[in-house]
Each structure stands twice: as C-alpha cells, then as structure tokens.
Design goal:
This protein has a single domain (3-88), classed as Histidine-containing Protein, Chain: A, CATH 3.30.1340. 34% of the residues lie in helices and 27% in strands. It has three helices and four strands, in the order βαββαβα. It has helices at 18-29, 49-54, 72-84; strands at 3-9, 34-39, 42-45, 62-68.
Length: 90
C-alpha cells in the first residue's frame, strides 16, 4: 500500500501545545490509516499525544504528515484542514 505524505506549516501562535496536539491526535484517531508526523528527521505516531508533543513544533515549524492505509487520503485532508484552520484557535 502506498504511503501518502503532505508537508504542512504550523502557523497558530502557540504551535503544537497541549490543546492543539490533542485536536490533531483526535483527528488522526478517527481514521484506520497509520499516520505519522515527521519533523527534523524524527518520526512519531500521530495518534499518540505524548509522541506528538515530543516533537515540539513551535509556530513556523514544517512537519510532514505520512499516512498509509485505506483512508490515508481522507486522513491527510482532515489533518491539513485542521492545521490550516490553526486548530480553531484564531
């Protein structure tokens, strides 16, 4: 199965802080696909709050979202919308 990926810039003021990370994990968890976040060579599980917070994405960080599975494309789209809408914070 093909791995799909998309680069996204974190643009909300506080970056991937607690609430934003929780929103991302909640969104990723709605999908069956294996979803990973990659930043500066470190790859983490997008369905784990501890993993997502561990990559410390501040405002302006670029992350690559990788998804593999039957609903990978839908998962990438949902995560892209969440990030582009600044996690509903602004």
């Amino acid at each position: 199965m093909e791995i799909l990926e998309k680069k996204l810039r974190i643009s909300n003021v506080l970056g991937l802080h607690g609430r934003a990370s929780a929103s991302l994990v909640e969104t990723a968890s709605r999908f069956a696909a294996d979803i990973r976040l990659v930043r500066d060579g470190e790859e983490v599980d997008a369905k784990s709050i501890l993993d997502v917070m561990s990559i410390a994405c501040v405002r302006g960080s670029v992350v690559t979202v990788r998804a593999k599975g039957v609903d990978a494309e839908a998962a990438l789209t949902a995560i892209e919308i969440l990030v582009r809408n600044k996690f509903g914070e602004e």
